[in-house]
Amino acid sequence: MCLVQPCSLALPPRLPHFIFIMVDDQGYGDIGYHGSDIHTPVLDRLAAEGVKLENYYVQPICSPSRSQLMTGRYQIHTGLQHSIIHPRQPLCLPPDIPTPPEHLWHLGFCRPSCLPTGRGFQSFLGTLTGSGDHFSYQSCDGAEACGFDLHDGDRPAWEMAGNYSTLLLKQFLKRHDPHTPLFLYLSLQATHAPLQVPDHFLHLYDSQYNRLRRHYAAMLSCLDSGVAQVVQELKTQELYENSVLIYSSDNGGQPLSGGSNWTLRGGKGTYWEGGIRTVGFVHSPLLKKKGIVSRALIHVSDWYPTLLGLAGARQSHHGLDGHDVWGSISEGLPCPPPWRGMEPLAGPRRG
Predict the structure, then answer these.
(1) Residues 45 and 231 sit within 8 Å (Cβ to Cβ)
(2) Is 62 tagged catalytic?
(3) Which among 115, 162, 175, 346 is least surrounded, fewest beta carbons within 10 Å?
(4) What is the rounded CA–CA span in Å between residue 70 and residue 247?
(5) Catalytic site residue from 17, 77, 106, 192
(6) 3-state class (DSSP) for residue 152
């Protein structure tokens, strides 16, 4: 699914533009700079020119990871620790928990107040369910409940059917005022099943892999091309020099759908490293140190306070599980301790 959710923050000029790209089910081993033979030259270059996050953790499935991104709180504090939110479940991210004006797929849509435009976004283009067709946008919750799921704001975007979901990336950048701070959240269905991709990307792997791996690899190459278009549009619209681009997968890859988490054990849905340690990097002209690898312990819940800090927002960190880690990313400063703000238990010392 492609979920393009921008928000113009009501803040003074010259504060950073944020572009957060959340990929669905990309495996730890499925990027060029981790040794993959899948073609991801743009992602490799952006990561090489920025900061690669090599000790970066998420949750093993999507709704918990995405809720932590939006709230800075572990999923046990939002009630989203169990599984994804299915299309016919009357659930969503609790409305009393503040978000950095945004909302995303798999956090519910059962009421208008749960929709992206009800949670702070000024504009929304995308899908509200998961696992839909990447071209027709038909989505089913079991055989008996199917429908069209591509929305522009609160209306069905029938006219956009046929466009491939991953390439609906830069629609809003063309009309954004570069002097107004922007939050653009790109929540992509790639590389989640169904494994579908335009044929010219599939031909890159004509002589490689089995069918699942071939389609999965082609989807990542298509995603790589789409990110290149976004970066070019940022430069064209004079947004790039004052932007922070963050790239993350929501969980580990699904081997049954072509993903690979090598050299880690396990995959999506598990608490082994292959399910929760994932691809992540930051690319920005605003980084003080570039072209480095960060070993700082960073969790998806840390993005909420980090983005608010960069935006100059005065936000109480009371009740948050995440930490502002921009100093660790940009300057290589020590990261918060492993117990993430909790007091360690007292006990006898060893030695």
Answers:
(1) no
(2) yes
(3) 346
(4) 15
(5) 106
(6) strand
Tokens coding 66 = 């995405």
CA distances from 124 to 5, 28, 116, 119, 253 (A): 5, 29, 7, 11, 27
Catalytic residue among 2, 34, 39, 62: 62
Burial class of residue 67 (count of CB atoms within 10 Å of its CB; 0-12, 13-18, 19+): buried
Is 146 among the catalytic positions?
no
Please report, for residues 225, 240, 270, 295, 340, the alpha-carbon distance to residue 36 in angstroms, rounded to integers and kept in the order given.
Answer: 17, 28, 22, 20, 32
**What 3-state class would DSSP assign to 204?**
helix
CB 324 within 8 A of CB 333: no
**CA atoms of 264 and 118, how far apart (whole Å):** 39
Q: What is the pLDDT tens value at each position of the chain, 351 positions in all?
A: 444 444 555 444 478 999 999 999 999 999 999 999 999 999 999 999 999 999 999 999 888 888 888 888 887 777 676 666 666 666 667 776 766 554 334 455 666 777 776 766 777 888 888 788 999 999 988 767 889 988 888 889 999 999 998 888 666 677 788 888 888 889 898 999 999 999 999 999 988 889 999 999 999 999 999 999 999 999 999 999 999 999 999 999 999 999 999 999 999 999 999 999 999 999 999 999 999 999 999 999 999 999 989 988 766 667 789 999 999 999 999 887 655 544 444 444 433
In order of their start, the domains of the chain are 2-331 (3.40.720.10)
Q: What is the C-alpha to C-alpha distance for residues 73 and 48, in angstroms, rounded to an integer?
A: 30
